Every structure is written in structure tokens, then in C-alpha cells.
Amino acid sequence: MIKHDNLNDNIYLLLVRIKLIRDTLLLDTDTRLFLEKTLADIDFINQVLGVLLGKLQANRQLIDRDELFSHLSELEWQFSQVLSEILNGSGCISASRMPEIRDTILKIRKSSLERRETIEIINENGADYPKEPVLSTSELNELLKDI
């Protein structure tokens, strides 16, 4: 069986970062102090979500794969909500107040939507990978060595 490489922890940490960005949008902060860091965090989250999706797609024998895809789907939804808040909101960091960030946020939102579509397709076609836990040859040998 393949271990899920701390994917749950990675997903959790990204969720915390997304909530931090959402809180930043709600507060009346000095935009000059937080804009660059917030945009860098958004870009970072976008990149890591792509990496996590790639890992899940590549590991068809992953333990709890369905559950991880579900968590990743929820994470993508949360991320898209934050991006929508930036595009349509009136907080300290918003595309309506700062049109120069609109194109960047739209590009990232497009990536997020594409990943969500990919996750939905994978969830719909879930039969293309084994549902039962899969043992590697070495794991099977280890289990059978005492017999």
C-alpha cells in the first residue's frame, strides 16, 4: 500500500492559509503592507493545489484516495470563494479597488476551476482504479513470510 505522503496535512495547512487570506480581506488593514504578501500566498496556494492534484492523479493505488479527492475538492471550492471575494468584494484587497490585480486573480481562478473540473471528472470515473487496498510485492512477501 502506498502511504499518502502527508497529503492530509498539506491539505489542512492550505485550508488554514486560505482562511487567513479570507480574514485578511475582512479586516481594514493597510493594503500597502499586505497586498504583496497576500498575492504571493494566493499564487503559492494555486501552485501547491496543482502539485497535490498531480500527486493524487499519479497515485492510483493510494490509500484513502477518494477521501483525499473529496478534501481537495472542498479546498478548491474554498479557494475559489476567496478569489471571488477578491474579484467582487469591497475589502481592503479587491479587484474593484485595484484593477491592476484583476487579470492575475482571473488567471488563478481559471486554474482553480480547471482543477475542480478535473476532480469532478475523476470522481465520476472513479471505477478506473482499484477500490480495494493494493499490496506491493514486498508487502505481500512480508505478510506471507511467517506462513
Q: Point out poorly predicted stretches.
A: 127-131
Shape: elongated
Radius of gyration: 19 Å
- Kindly estimate the percentage of residues that lie in beta strands according to DSSP: under 5%
**N-to-C order of helices and strands:** HHHHH
Quickly count the helices: 5
Structural class: mainly alpha
First CA to last CA: what distance? Answer: 20 Å
The largest β sheet comes out as: none
Number of strands: 0
Give average pLDDT, whole number: 86
Proportion of residues in helical segments: over 70%
How many domains make up the 3D coordinates? 1
Report on the structure:
- This protein is mainly α.
- The protein has one domain.
- The chain is built from 5 helices and no strands.
- α1 (7-26) packs antiparallel against α2 (31-58) and α2 runs parallel beside α4 (102-124).
- It is elongated.
- 20% of the residues are buried.
